[in-house]
Write a structure and sequence with these properties.
Low-confidence stretches: none
Distance between the termini: 74 Å
Number of strands: 22
CATH topology of the largest domain: Alpha-D-Glucose-1,6-Bisphosphate, Chain A, domain 3
Strand content: 15-25%
Cofactor: Mg(2+)
Number of domains: 5
CATH architecture of the largest domain: 3-Layer(aba) Sandwich
Number of helices: 19
CATH class of the largest domain: Alpha Beta
Family: Belongs to the phosphohexose mutase family.
CATH superfamily of the largest domain: Alpha-D-Glucose-1,6-Bisphosphate, subunit A, domain 3
Largest sheet: 7 strands, antiparallel
Keywords: Carbohydrate metabolism, Cytoplasm, Glucose metabolism, Isomerase, Magnesium, Metal-binding, Phosphoprotein
Shape: globular
GO cellular component, one term: nucleus
Main location: cytoplasm
Radius of gyration: 24 Å
Mean pLDDT: 95
Amino acid sequence: MSVPSVGDASLDQLVQQWLSLDQNPKTRKEITDLVEAGNKAELHTRLDARMEFGTAGLRAAMAAGYSRMNDVTIIQTAQGFARYVEDVQPDAKSMGVAIGYDARHNSQRWAQLSALALVARGIKVYLFSAICPTPFVPFAVCKYKTAAGVMVTASHNPKNDNGYKVYWGNGAQIISPHDKGIASHIEENLQPWPTAWDVSALESNDAFRALVVDPLAEVTASYMDAIREHSIEGSPRDAIKITYTAMHGVGLEFAMKAYETFGLPPFVQVAEQVHPDPEFPTVKFPNPEEGKSALDLSIRTANANDSPVIVANDPDADRLAVAERRPDGSWKIFTGNEIATIFAGWLLQQYLKTHADAKNAACVASTVSSKFLKRMAEVEGCYFEETLTGFKWIGNKVIELHAAGRDIIMSFEEAIGFSVGTVVFDKDGVCASAVMGLIANDLYSRGSTLMQQLEALYLKYGYFASLNSYYLCYSQPTIQKIFQRIRKDEQYPTSCGGVAIRHVRDLTTGYDNSKPGNKATLPTSSSSQMVTFTFENGAVITIRTSGTEPKIKYYTELRGDASSV
């Protein structure tokens, strides 16, 4: 069928190119409908540029076009990924690749399309047969010693989005040079291979079927065995009722198993949200980090069941939110920094019950997260290290410290991402939810609460007050102008709000006037914006762009000694 022209030769060529690649009737129709409507602007948006494959993999809206998530872009990505894996890892065919997916629209199909690309190259695939939490993929990578792993998920993004998250063979998210290597291989493999479209071939083709293994049951059992080491013997199990929500995602089945593994009683379920639903009907943004708007139903359920503590996973169960009822009946929704403080204080206390001191213990946090762990490490004599933002950096640093013989207590980023120990080298909301259940029961059995524990830790180590948020900005030129104005050829602001700025670190340019030669020691990247100001009064402010969302984020923190409060 001929396609009407939009009267623009270069755009018509892009349309014809797309239609020559796409065999999905739905996304083909999206493009032809835009052509027939003469919507040049939207066609340019969809077809002019490809999604950029980076250390966060891919994440975008699901729709037709090179800048969106769809069958074509997934096939192209999977083909490039497959070729890169076999080029870099000589034993990739026998080592295999682990592939999981969440409950979003298209996630299962795109996991299958990815598997199809890999088996077409003779690479073994550990393809989960049903939805699973994101942390199960890096766990599977380590368990089976695969060459790499893929999780199809958009985590906590709105329902129209999806994503493609890649892990390397060490079990951590990819960092350079793998992101660049995969991106270049994608560009070299844009034409769908002859076997690219027919996912039924995973069953009907004997050669393909022989290369596909379902790891779901085995990984689930092994994972539960692995987290058992954090189930502290003798710790109270039934002091309180805990309320749980999966935020319409994958978490329920696995959180239940984790609670059983820890010997914790069943939690109260938020009935409207615990089962998978890609439409996310009860929340505009399926992100427990959004606070009360995302936890309204949880609070209602907890109140109805006399449950003083809420734990919430995001849709792919790699993050954890926590809330607690105050004595006046209102609810305290803890920030990621506050949750990490509670985790760190309790976990170190447990560690010291079996170790003479904390010298070999270690904690890791991202540079925009609270400095509480750093302060705790200074007081207790344990090791602390800071990384760039994101668990791709945190996970790789934890692997390095673990290999050096350090006992990893925990690692975290302020965006409610936590990893306890070394079960998974990525954030893990399943294990974290069970450990938080253990902490809450322990505290309540002793007549305390999470809020009182937080206060006690602040009294011991100092008060940490933080305020983090973001501004939406969809214009890259505007973002560039904002940061150009901030740095002004390294003539950075010298004060703000009447307080002098002591140090400036710019991880976009590599400038850091707190280091010899004004050179930053953390990795720098000119493709993202990140500037940190340290003030004379100890306050720290970081401004950065998001790698997965159209946001300019800001992070602020001020510490005060308990004696001065």
